[in-house]
Amino acid sequence: MKVCLYDMFGTDTLRDRETALLVTKSISDAPSGQAVQIDFSHIIFASRSFCHELLTFLRNRNDVQIENANKEVQLMMIAAVRKPENVLEYPMKKMVVC
Q1: pLDDT tens digit string along 37-52?
Q2: CB neighbours (10 Å) of residue 23?
Q3: For residue 28, is it within any domain?
Q4: Which value, to the nearest 10 degrees, does the dihedral of the CA atoms of residues 81, 87, 88, 89 take?
Q5: Is residue 11 part of a domain?
Q6: Torsion over CA: 14, 68, 54, 26 (sign)
Q7: Using an 8 Å Cβ cutoff, are 36 and 64 in contact?
Q8: Quick one: which of 1, 46, 61, 65 is 20 to 30 A from 33 by CA?
């Protein structure tokens, strides 16, 4: 089974978790044991939240393959699953409301 994201959504931009949930639903509906290819052809941007939601779903799935993701989408996928190296902490300041 092949899931062509551009054909599915009619856009080259994937922005939110809800969009990723639609992809995961279509993958879940595939017959058990059937290999699935997610085709990122013509997708120029995928948000961090989209990538995180999709990759979280795919974490334990070895029957799904991602194809044709451009460099920017690949880097966003890496960023979506990588833990931050530096955590900045800011002291809370008293807020004055005028």
Answers
A1: 999 999 999 999 999 9
A2: 20
A3: yes
A4: 120
A5: yes
A6: positive
A7: yes
A8: 46
Enter the tokens of residue 69: 């993701």
The residue assigned the tokens 């551009």 is 6
> What is the per-residue pLDDT for 98?
45
Between the alpha carbon of residue 11 and those of residues 1, 35, 80, 89, 96, the distances in Å are 21, 25, 21, 38, 44
Average pLDDT, the chain: 88
| 90 domain residue, yes or no | no
DSSP state of 68: S
Question: From CA 55, how far away is CA 7, in angstroms rounded?
Answer: 20
pTM: 0.80
Q: Which residues of the chain have pLDDT under 50?
A: 97-98
